[in-house]
Amino acid sequence: MPFPPSSAVRAPRLHAALSVLCAAALIPLAATAQTPPKPAAKPAAPAKPAAAPAAAPAAAPQAGTRTLGSSAGAAASGGPLLTREELRACLNQEASLRQRIDAAAAERAPLAQDKQAIEVEREALRAEREKLEGRKALNDELAARFRALAERIESWNQRVKSFDEKPKTGVAGERERAALNTERGELDKQRIALGEELTRLNAANQELAAGFNARAQAVENRVAAWNERNARLNDAAGALELEREAWVGSCANRRYREDDEIAIRRGQ
Fold first, then answer.
1. CA angle 206-208-213, nearest 5°?
2. 18 Cβ contact partners less than 8 Å away, ≥ 6 residues apart
3. Mean pLDDT for each 10-residue chunk of the chain (268 residues)?
4. What's this model's pTM, rounded to 2 decimal places?
5. What is the 3-state secondary structure (H, E, C) of the chain?
């Protein structure tokens, strides 16, 4: 059975970009990952190789003659006898058909093995993508910390504004000024730390997404190659079946002299 068309199996690319909006907002990785399209309907099963031409001789319709077909109709068929050269051509075509049919059947086994291996790889990709999307929790947690920092900064700005508009004097004023300056240093440290953490998280997300995308593209290439091989084998099987049917009509249902067959087998 062929794989679905390439457009239906393409693994979605993961985007790793994260950013801060208004000093606090964070765009999560998983939120930008594309949703994979639904698989296309499964195409029909690959065509089976043509059956080998029947070669078992039937009962001769008259003394000294035989047919290449094994059916009762072939044995009873009339018409002119095959000449020796016509019989030689029929026997050669039969041998060629058998050889090519066997070769086509032999190609099916590795094709089936490759399909199974590709399915295993696609399952592994799905599991890997789920793990990557699980990193959304890390992104969300960092985004929440940025928002909390933004709220603290806004609160600090309001308190500084109030202090500047109505400055306090004496010990109480100096104490409040010192507290605001201390808090500003803490906010700066937290802002720098969160920025560094964001940089590390972005780098890790980008590396993981790049690896996933490269692996997904490799699987997609294997699927496309498999579909091409499968189509080629199906076309070859169809052509062999048409040739086999033509051989049955022109050779299997015609009588020939046994003496001619014996002479051909001897190389005459």
1. 90
2. 26, 27, 28, 29, 139, 198, 201, 202, 205
3. 39 34 27 34 44 45 71 52 92 93 90 93 91 88 94 93 85 88 93 94 92 94 94 93 90 88 88
4. 0.58
5. CCCCCHHHHCCCCCCCCCCEECCCEECCCHHHCCCCCCCCCCCCCCCCCCCCCCCCCCCCCCCCEEECCCCHHHHHCCCCCCCHHHHHHHHHHHHHHHHHHHHHHHHHHHHHHHHHHHHHHHHHHHHHHHHHHCCHHHHHHHHHHHHHHHHHHHHHHHHHHHHHHCCCCHHHHHHHHHHHHHHHHHHHHHHHHHHHHHHHHHHHHHHHHHHHHHHHHHHHHHHHHHHHHHHHHHHHHHHHHHHHHHHHHHHHCCEEEHHHHHHHHCCC
Q: Which residue has the tokens 């890390």?
A: 138
